[in-house]
Design goal:
homodimer, globular, 240 residues, DNA-binding, Four Helix Bundle (Hemerythrin (Met), subunit A), Arc Repressor Mutant, subunit A
Chain lengths: 240, 240
Amino acid sequence: MPSTNPSDPHASPDRKASLGGALRRRILTMHLAPGAVIDETELAEEFGLSRPPVREAMRQLAGEGYIELEPNRPARVTPLGYRSLRDFFLFAPVVYVASTRLAAERRTDAEVAELKEIQHRFRAAIRDGDVDGRVFENDRFHLKIGEMAHNAYVLPSLRRCLIDHARIAKVFYEDQLAARHPKMAEERDEAAAQHDEIIAAIEARDPDRAEALVRAHLDLSRRNMAMYAAPEGMAIRFDN
Amino acid sequence: MPSTNPSDPHASPDRKASLGGALRRRILTMHLAPGAVIDETELAEEFGLSRPPVREAMRQLAGEGYIELEPNRPARVTPLGYRSLRDFFLFAPVVYVASTRLAAERRTDAEVAELKEIQHRFRAAIRDGDVDGRVFENDRFHLKIGEMAHNAYVLPSLRRCLIDHARIAKVFYEDQLAARHPKMAEERDEAAAQHDEIIAAIEARDPDRAEALVRAHLDLSRRNMAMYAAPEGMAIRFDN
DNA sequence: GGACTACCAGCTGTCTACAATAGATAGGAC
DNA sequence: GTCCTATCTATTGTAGACAGCTGGTAGTCC
């Protein structure tokens, strides 16, 4: 019985919260691939729980959009289809702009400080070549801005977008060919620089500038994704 | 044991779906007031279920924003504070406009037909003075438009807004003093007429007109809410 | 008389065991 | 040989019982 083992890292007092956090992270970083089936029994054993609390956690994750449930069928990680990309770039700007504008108007000093800490960890992950950490801290960064908006409706909307933001980004980052592309390093640095500018605009309580910056930030992602999904043809001549 | 009673209306094959639907409806129509505690045991008995499936349903509802959960504390219906009104009218236009524009671009004929059916039931509820039915069908109407947008991110965002749209409207409609106000009947008819115009714009695949209409629709609600929350002073003279 | 403490009731959280359903596999019929 | 069908297994869904926490109450001490 794994739960009786004191060295088990998951035998902590709140194993359920641990389960939820772990599942979210695995889905965001694509360690659980879109469409992958999730076995209740397996998770229960891994976290030293019985199935009912695991099932509760699954329901919650389903409500948040991480997984999808069908009756009498195993739970599956929310798929990420070709349509997701289009859907995302249609709706995400709306949510991100609303979130960032409100954050610029309503932020507290303590929140700005916390945002800077997240950005610090984000830059550290880039420096260390830690792709998962980079995806995760980027998620935390935008989520924190959503919290700073202090609006009960913005935050859940943003959360749903961020799930697929992270997963779309991960697809791009982990592609080895794309990773070697010189534009890749450029994009990485520019994204980090944009984060700094967004922080500055929010700190200065300047919604207009914050909006312009976050639009540019999303546009950078969008252009990279387009380049990745529909690259230029290879420079090969068939004339030898 | 209520579940063994064949005449029990809740002993249907899918009691859990029934539970979720009933709870959502009760919360939308304010039969479960904001902040009200929800007793698991009570619900389990009412729907002829044991507590685990009830708890699962609660988690799902929490994820969707209907209720709030805290550890070792009873579940509570999501509160509806003075800030909710402001938050709602700040963010709802953004979501409704996105939803309606996309619906106008992507709708199918079958969906338009279904939307007209919902509108038919909405008008019937108004005619019959059925306040709960009016609130519920209005919710269904806007939700259907969200489905017609065929965008995985818009729909959950809209869902969260609609929960409080229904509840805010219910506060207004059920106020007896406001109900007697002559503006009330006017607003009722105008809202229904706007629904018809929105349907027409979506059917005509005209996103711009649909956007203008839905903005006007929200503005009508907003003005009424403002009037309700901050009415003009009473016309009483203290001179006798 | 007021305040602190220990007990107690009720609820939430969890576990084990059982029932029901879906998919897979093997057997038989055409 | 192919298709259909029936059984069988693995997984999901549910029930009932137990453990742990919270809040209230009553009793006692200062």
